[in-house]
Write a structure and sequence with these properties.
- By secondary structure, this protein is of the alpha/beta class.
- It has one domain (3-232): TIM Barrel (Alpha-Beta Barrel), CATH 3.20.20.
- 41% of the residues lie in helices and 15% in strands.
- It contains ten helices and eight strands.
- It has helices at 3-8, 12-33, 52-60, 71-80, 99-105, 115-128, 154-159, 182-199, 215-220, 230-233; strands at 42-45, 65-68, 87-90, 108-112, 132-137, 167-173, 206-208, 225-228.
- A six-stranded parallel beta sheet has the order 2-3-4-5-6-7.
- The radius of gyration is 17 Å and the shape is globular.
Length: 251
């Protein structure tokens, strides 16, 4: 069995459709528990390491936006799938020298936590005549292995966003602690909601939080965007179960 068949099954589109139906059922159930409208939860499929041909099948299954962690991989897929009306979101840490690529193809950037990156994006977006939706990444777990602003630094950072008119603030993003302790995971999501409420920025209303293993908890705590990859596309063979986009790579 080759790795693609192992991951996506003999009929990848059928697998994706079945997984998508399961995810939507889980979203609905979490929303019922939280007395929320499922329409208020946006599913962002994460297609990191998923070949463009499989993303094309996912689009045919009804998905029109995808999140990518690595800029070069995302840009290549955007080019391969340029015939489709896909909205691309960059969800991983961004180096300033990659801003030019994001400015060319992405509609959204969910990991803004650095003024130098904001400046680089602003300059490149101006040159492209484009704007970019952004989420401010906050490190709600306090772990040094994760990117994101420390909670006490968020208000001052947000106050500077008006310096970058090509960036359109949409909300906050976080990654919860990687733990089987649901209370610890939930605390990270609550902390992001508290940050949002304390900052009270009129445009920063969204909460992007929750992935395949914890999105139901995130929905219960107010997530408006959930980033789901493994539950939709399956785990990449040989992948590290402890790796999540947004973690600082070891070494």
């Amino acid at each position: 069995m080759n790795s693609d068949t192992q991951r996506f099954g003999a009929d990848p589109q059928a697998t994706i459709r079945a997984n998508l139906a399961d995810i939507r059922a889980r979203i609905d159930a979490a929303c019922r528990r939280a007395n929320r409208d499922p329409a208020g939860v946006r599913l962002l499929p994460v297609s990191k390491t998923v070949p463009a041909r499989i993303v094309r099948l996912a689009h045919a299954a009804g998905l029109s936006e995808f999140g990518e962690n690595k800029v070069q991989e995302a840009e290549a897929k955007a080019a391969d799938l340029a015939d489709l009306p896909i909205r691309w979101s960059v969800i991983g840490h961004l180096q300033t020298n990659k801003a030019k690529h994001v400015a060319r193809f992405a509609s959204e950037f969910q990991a803004l936590d650095n003024l130098r990156v904001a400046e680089a994006l602003q300059s490149r977006l101006q040159g492209e005549g484009r704007t970019l939706d952004v989420f401010v990444q906050v490190n709600t777990s306090g772990e040094t292995s994760k990117f994101g602003l420390a909670v006490p630094d968020v208000a001052a950072f947000v106050a500077r966003l008006t310096d970058f008119p090509a960036l359109r603030p949409r909300g906050f993003m976080t990654l919860a602690v990687f733990s089987d302790d649901r209370d610890k995971v939930r605390a990270c999501f609550r902390r992001l909601r508290d940050v949002r409420d304390a900052v009270a920025h009129p445009a920063l209303t969204g909460l992007s939080m929750g992935m395949s293993g914890d999105f139901e908890i995130a929905i219960e705590e107010g997530a408006s965007v959930i980033r789901v990859g493994t539950a939709l596309f399956g785990r990449r063979p040989g992948s590290d179960a402890h790796y999540w986009p947004g973690l600082i790579p070891p070494g």
